[in-house]
Write a structure and sequence with these properties.
The chain is mostly helical. It is built from 21 helices and four strands. The strands form two sheets. The protein has a two-stranded parallel sheet with strand order 1-4. Strands 2-3 form a two-stranded antiparallel sheet. Strand 2 (411-412) and strand 3 (416-420) form a beta hairpin.
Length: 425
Amino acid sequence: MNWPMTWIFILIVAWYFAAGIQRAEKMYQFPFLASVMTLGFIVPQLPALANDPFLPSGAYVKTMLMGVLCLLMLRLGWSETARPFPFLNQTFSHRKLLIAAGFLSVIGAYFYFLLSRLPGEVSIGVQMTGMPVVYLFFARLMTYGLAIALLCFTSRPTLTAALIIGFDLILYFDRIIVTGKRAEALELVLMILLAIWFHRHWIVPRWLMVAGILIGTFAMTSMSDYRQITRAHSGVVWDQVMEIDVVGNFEETLKEGGLEMRNAVQRIDEIDRRLEFDYGKFHWNKLVFTFVPAQLVGTSFKEGLMLNTPKPERSYQPLTGTTETGFVDAFSSFWYFGALKFFILSYLVCRIWKAALAGGTAAQLVYMMSIVPAMHAISHQTDWVVQVWVHMALFLVPVLAFARFRGVALPSFFAGPHVPAQLHS
């Protein structure tokens, strides 16, 4: 059953991918982008695992079945008739938005600078703790500033918006190049493409999208080598980077399998045998871990807020830096019924997308900030996007409240002549 389930999984991914390529505007929607993440991160790891005789009997099939259910629920949650969230339809002053973008960029840039001065062994390819986590938490404000500036510039090009974008890109590129962050690189590309789409209705050519996906798929299997170089030297040594065997690493992944899906197979099999679930407590614990600062309230108080959840067997020792995929946390919460997490996630993201198409600047910002964490529900965990929404509620909502415009606005590009525009001078 290993290969039949593998082919079912791959055919579903190919279906979502082909649907996006056939209708260009779907390339910015969650089902297509989720298929891109699955194609680049999950699929190359499957052939070796499907043929691995040393995996527990039936474990691989259980994992593939969960993956199939999650992908189907993701598509079921995305509806062309979904209604936009009305609370995201707000009107903003163009001038105040630029002020907000500049403010957020400066604050975030300061923490990005502090983060960049840390040695590579504590900031690159490791699980950060302590002050680096604080720096990264507030550095996120620069991303919000960049996203706002991109929307302002594509709506009405100004020198101020261009200067903010240029300032942010310097630090953004530094973090991407030095730390080899795939998520930040993907987020930057999608922020730019989505801002242009929302206000200029321009879509990247299909051939360029496919070429980028192929390049990213090959490069993804070599990121650990890249990070080892930058971690050892706290920066990029291009001579060593050019020596990375990208093709060889990809072939090795096909031959040996990846650690992430191997982790997923082991965990799903273990959970299915023990039938011990967390019933969603996982999400609460992740919110406490991210937003309750132990430096201020103390470690014991923070740990007291955590809920008890089943622990993995002692024999399970994943390599630091590897993930388990979102299939695992969904399964660990509600067994196969945990696939409903992907339905809920897709449903919410779809309504944000509809609001963004209706011209809502707030919705456009939320979608730009949400789509990459939503994609990582496939490769990492389903809680990433929830953490992003909470972070935006803490920092972005007050800034947008400042920028709200209470006068009469002009028509927006997508909304038609009877719907207020979202950016007004």
